[in-house]
Amino acid sequence: MKLTLLASLMASAAAFAPSKVAQSTTSLNAFESEIGSQPPLGFFDPLGLLDDADQERFDRLRYVEVKHGRIAQLAFLGNIITRAGIHLPGNIDQAGNAFESFPNGYAAVNAIPGAGVAQIVLFVGFLELGVMKDVTGEAEFPGDFRNGALDFGWDNFDEETKLSKRGIELNNGRAAMMGILGLMVHEQLGGVLPVVGEM
User: Fold this and answer.
1) pLDDT band at 116 (very low <50, low <70, confident <90, very high)
2) Is the entire prediction scored with pTM above 0.85?
3) Sign of CA dihedral 105, 75, 60, 128
4) Which one has a higher pLDDT value, 11 or 68?
5) Which of 10-14, 17-21, 54-58, 180-184 has the lowest mean pLDDT?
């Protein structure tokens, strides 16, 4: 009995002892200099999605990250604005239901009539398949949807400013993804949050 207890204590203590880890070179090193790999985390891929990945795979995942970040920014801002009591004027349907008559947040999804949800899904599908993509092949980076038409002064920036702005957008998108997830969780939990108000 004492021997078993001693062996288990030694084994648990060994779990906290430092061990030598051999330096290994992986394909992750190829992406450590990409935008978004910054302090304090550096390059962060805990799920190993980029193990043995090439540049095309990285660009696809970066495109998806930027797209979801943009959507999350709109979702977070929309959630805050509607909770502040600001709604579109007019009616959402022919029956005379006003936009402001629908609840805020995720509860609105269940309250909107089926035809309204179908319209939203069709509109998002249209944007995804027809608008929000590189149609002309002129994209400078994943997520560049200017298509030779919209510029807003982007071409006037130097390369350092462009990289800075892309990094800022990426970080804001990451924060918004966590923010909208937090709002959705707190909405299910209920209560009151600062700035947001009653959930």
Assistant:
1) confident
2) no
3) positive
4) 68
5) 17-21
Burial category of 1 from C-beta neighbours within 10 Å (exposed 0-12, middle 13-18, buried 19 and up): exposed
Instruction: Return the amino acid letter for 107.
Output: A
Two tokens, residue 192: 């009151």
Provide the pLDDT for residue 5: 54
Return the exposure string of 4-28: e unless at least 16 CB atoms fall within 10 Å of the residue's CB, then b. Answer: eeeeeeeeeeeeeeeeeeeeeeeeb
Cβ 50 vs Cβ 157: under 8 Å: no
pLDDT in tens, 15-28: 444 544 444 444 44
- Residue 195 is classified by DSSP as T
Q: Are 33 and 57 in contact (CB under 8 A)?
A: no
DSSP secondary structure letters along 120-169: HHHHHHHIIIIISS-SSS--SSTT---TTT--TTGGGS-HHHHHHHHHHH
**DSSP structure string for 23-48:** ----GGGGGTTSTT-BTTTBS--TT-
Q: Which contiguous run of DSSP H or E holds residue 67?
A: helix 55-83
| 54 contact partners, CB below 8 Å, separation of at least 6 | none
Q: Taking a C-beta distance cutoff of 8 angstroms, is the pair 94, 71 a contact?
A: no
How far is residue 191 CA from its own chain's centroid? 25
